[in-house]
Specification:
There is one protein chain. With 233 residues, this protein is an alpha/beta fold. The protein has a single domain, classed as Ribonuclease H-like superfamily/Ribonuclease H (Nucleotidyltransferase, domain 5, 2-Layer Sandwich), CATH 3.30.420. The chain contains eight helices and seven strands. The strands form two sheets. A five-stranded mixed beta sheet has the order 3-2-1-4-5, sandwiched between helices. The protein starts with a strand and ends with a strand.
């Protein structure tokens, strides 16, 4: 099995109306050894208004949005789709990707006439390293360091939790740097609590998730470090 870790930087947080500005991905083998990496930026779509906070966070200057040397959004999405198809079949992984990057990517593929469900069809599966971290915090609390915010809550943000565990995340919010941080955290969890990693892999596709659901007398579902639920299928 190969893994395709990826991340996006965008014009904002609305997955229906914002767009991808930067996409980066690293394909690894089953032991997280890098096989290939891919990165691309693109120009702003004419109908999209970027959020100032998003540009500040990602250090994207306004003039970069109109850089004629960059590919158009359509050209970039076509290259992304071609690369991910070339890497298939694989397990596609990101950090908070199920609720954010996957939705943006699916929307972009749909709008540009590419296979919208590329990451979970034709032998592909997907997982979210944020949920892996949540499970580790709940079931193996000594495996990783989870920083505490000023409000006394555990921080699971990649730009705080990766440095707290020894990763140099100087370039946080650059897509490629965030992919490297995501791989670091995935490797850390698999090394220190492999049974939790195995659970992620075992539920990365609909079929395998159903097998787990009906093949066990009881299961635990972690929604966040503050909420874990036990239930019987």
């Amino acid at each position: 099995m190969s893994f395709a870790f990826y991340d996006t930087e965008t014009t904002g947080i609305d997955t229906s109306f914002d767009q991808i500005l930067q996409f980066a991905a690293i394909r690894t083998d089953a032991n997280f050894n890098e096989l290939e990496r891919f990165e691309i930026r693109c120009r702003l779509l004419p109908h999209v208004v970027p959020a100032p906070a998003a540009l500040t966070t990602t250090s994207v200057a306004p003039e970069m949005l109109m850089d004629a040397s960059l590919p158009s959004h359509y050209e970039a999405i076509c290259q992304i789709a071609d690369k991910l198809e070339a890497w298939s079949p694989a397990m596609f992984l990101g950090y908070n990707s199920i609720h954010f990057d996957e939705r943006l990517l699916r929307q972009a593929f749909y709008q540009n006439l590419k296979p919208a469900y590329l990451t979970n069809t034709n032998g592909n599966s997907r997982g979210d390293i944020l949920k892996l971290i949540d499970a580790a915090i709940v079931f193996a609390p000594n495996a990783i360091v989870a920083p505490v915010t000023d409000k006394g809550r555990l921080s699971r943000k990649l730009d705080t939790i990766a440095p707290a565990n020894g990763f140099d995340h100087t370039n946080a919010h650059d897509a490629l740097a965030d992919v490297e941080a995501t791989i670091f955290m995935a490797r850390l969890v698999r090394t220190r609590c492999p049974e939790i990693w195995d659970c992620l892999v075992a539920t990365a596709s609909k079929r395998s998730a159903l097998d787990q659901l009906w093949g066990n007398p009881a299961l635990a579902m972690v929604d966040s470090p503050h909420r874990a639920m036990w239930f019987e299928p």
